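Why does residue order matter? Because the sequence determines the fold. Keep that principle in mind as you read this record.
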Amino acid sequence: MKQQAEKTTTELPAVQDAPKGSLPRIAVAFGGGGARGLAHIHVIETLDELGIRPVAISGSSIGAIMGAGMAAGMPGEAIREHALVTVGNKTAVVSRLWGLRPQTVRDAVANGVRIGQFNLERILKAFLPADLPERFEDLPIPMTVTATDYYGQNEVLVNEGALFPALAASSAIPAVFMPVRLYGRVMIDGGISNPVPYECLMDLADIVIGIDVVGAPEGDGTHIPNRMESIFGSGQLMMQTAISLKLRLQPPHIFLRPAVGRTGVMDFLKAREVLAMSEGVKDELKYALDREIEARLQA
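Structure:
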């Protein structure tokens, strides 16, 4: 299904090496991980503090959503505030989901009312900022979103056309949301095929940052996971295996794993806890950037 991926992707021009003594160009890949992806906010805030505007962004699942906010020009502080008053607020979550309920009994019978049967694009529009652009072409920073072609068994990269269908396809977490049709194909979570999609950025910047928020099953080694823990935990193990292979083949210049603890994929109501436990990634990023930038300025 390689041809399908090519049809949904526009080649972005590769950048030339930055002139000696000039600041290097930076790109960021935001990984998937559900609620754990709220830790991406620290990365965006840190880049804001340093006055760094990425030349390109990529993202899978929640990383695509967070990345879209940054690509649209939203500062990290605004993204943090929006997250806390929407997905981080129980009353707001219930209210917004209630607005998406079937309007008639016929609709309820026909379409179902379980969260896994909601239209994910509608959910995203209910929770994301109203001024987010409708199309990739309207994003101030070029962005690539990953999705997984369920039957084609391959990663699909999207960086043109309608933004929200691509975000929905990239965020269709198995066992939580129904798959999404995109370009006539059945798509699921982009993190399944590429948890941290930094490869598509390697030719676009001097320094590529990859942020992994997949996490891993945690415990004392004796606890038997229940059914849902097993489903999501095995997904984490699978994605970490893929990441390990990717890092051996071609690592990004900077690769960080914020502390996300035992946060569940849908634990968005724990937004403040996630942000508190992952705050250390700010200093890690600053240190890594200082080292990489200094090395390039001296080269």
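The beta strands are 26-30, 56-60, 143-149, 154-158, 180-182, 185-188, 207-211, 254-256.
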